[in-house]
TrEMBL record:
This is ATP-dependent DNA helicase. InterPro entries: DNA_helicase_pif1-like_DEAD (IPR010285), P-loop_NTPase (IPR027417). Residues 36-112 form the DNA helicase Pif1-like DEAD-box helicase domain. The keyword Repeat does not apply. The keyword tRNA-binding does not apply. It comes from Suillus luteus UH-Slu-Lm8-n1. The lineage of its organism: Eukaryota, Fungi, Dikarya, Basidiomycota, Agaricomycotina. Belongs to the helicase family.
Length: 112
């Protein structure tokens, strides 16, 4: 089903996701990934590998990142979203609160 999204016309959410500057996003990733700590890098690699291997026969997964405040969750999520968007993927960042959703590029609250 994901492959058909690109064929849909008039869907503003999809159009918005496909308008990112992919070169700029890749530069952000290239600068940011080396600064990830070990745990962040494990999560980054797992999510990216899973997302890049998705197709119409094997859909992707939802991921929930949880840890104490100040551990770099937002930074990690921004890098994951940047990497996938740089690859032309559609990414939906969802948070449970309005404040958290504002911190993520293209973020939305779960109930919106």
């Amino acid at each position: 089903m994901a492959a058909r999204w690109r064929e849909m016309e008039g869907n503003l959410l999809i159009a918005e996701q496909l308008q990112y500057n992919r070169v700029e996003l890749q530069q952000t990733v290239d600068k940011g990934v080396p600064s990830l700590n070990t745990e962040q890098r494990v999560v980054f690699d797992a999510v990216i590998n899973d997302a890049m291997s998705c197709d119409k026969h094997r859909p992707g997964h939802a991921y929930f990142v949880h840890s104490a405040g100040g551990c770099g969750k937002t930074y990690l999520c921004k890098l994951i979203a940047s990497k996938l968007r740089a690859e032309g993927k559609i990414v939906l960042c969802v948070a449970s609160s309005g404040i958290a959703s504002l911190l993520l590029p293209g973020g939305r609250t779960a109930h919106s």
